[in-house]
Write a structure and sequence with these properties.
By secondary structure, this protein is mainly α. The protein has 11 helices and no strands. Its main location: membrane.
């Protein structure tokens, strides 16, 4: 119970930093929103996806890019706390040892959720429409939350171990690029065979296709189980190595 209270206090501390520096969320939003505008209004007319409106096909991939961008700031915030000695000071105080780390994780979950909501709102203004019912939206929310949690624990590893702020944030670049080699922007059957094989067997494709099906009330098939397996597997492995790194801090 005490650990939960400590986590809540430290979560509030991290969220106050974001509220006082809203440019963090704004910066996270710029790239995915610009990509959404570019692909919908410039390239969208030339891309055949089998959907009436390209924005309906594109939005899930944009949401994943936004989350991948957002978790880089989790690594930066963790790196900053390590370098300033905050972890060492807090570990010498009578608070739950894992509270500071979990505070950062919860901050990542909430700040990325805000980004996702804003992007969906912009998507609605651009013509995005979903036919999902309440259960479908809950499933979409759950997948996005699990994806965010998995990447957050992944971000914690460089945040705790990097030697420079650039090193702490650089790991996010491949994650941001990964949706481009998936079905997020175009169907994979249009790709050359080596690229298609990679695209169809990497985590983003199953996650994107699950979100697309759920949002448009279509059969999900096995994609959702593959997506969940990827997210849970990444989260479990990243959590293990993040906690090992955390125990060496301070």
């Amino acid at each position: 119970m005490k650990t939960l209270r400590d986590t809540g206090v430290l979560f509030g501390r991290s969220m106050r930093h974001i509220v006082r520096s809203p440019d963090t969320i704004i910066t996270v939003l710029i790239t995915p929103v610009m990509l959404m505008l570019l692909f919908v209004y410039v390239f969208g007319g030339a891309i055949q996806t089998g959907t009436e409106k390209y924005i309906d096909y594109l939005l899930p991939g944009i949401l994943l890019i936004a989350i991948a961008s957002g978790i880089s700031y989790t690594a930066v915030r963790l790196f900053s706390d390590v370098q300033t000695g905050l972890f060492s000071r807090f570990n010498s105080m009578p608070i739950g040892r894992s509270s500071l780390l979990w505070g950062h994780v919860l901050t990542s979950m909430v700040s990325n959720a805000i980004s996702v909501v804003v992007i969906i709102g912009i998507g609605l203004l651009m013509g995005f429409r979903a036919s999902a019912d309440l259960l479908g939206w809950l499933a979409v929310t759950g997948i996005l939350a699990l994806f965010t949690l998995a990447l957050t624990w992944l971000a914690a590893i460089p945040g705790l171990t990097a030697k420079s702020i650039d090193g702490a944030s650089a790991f996010a670049y491949p994650l941001i690029f990964l949706p481009f080699i998936s079905s997020a922007f175009v169907p994979t059957d249009t790709m050359p065979t080596p690229v298609r094989v990679f695209a169809e067997n990497q985590p983003v494709t199953s996650i994107v296709e699950s979100l697309q099906s759920l949002l448009h009330d279509q059969p999900v098939g096995n994609d959702i189980w593959v997506a969940l397996a990827w997210c849970v597997g990444i989260a479990a492995i990243a959590y293990f190595f993040a906690m090992r790194a955390y125990k060496r801090v301070g």
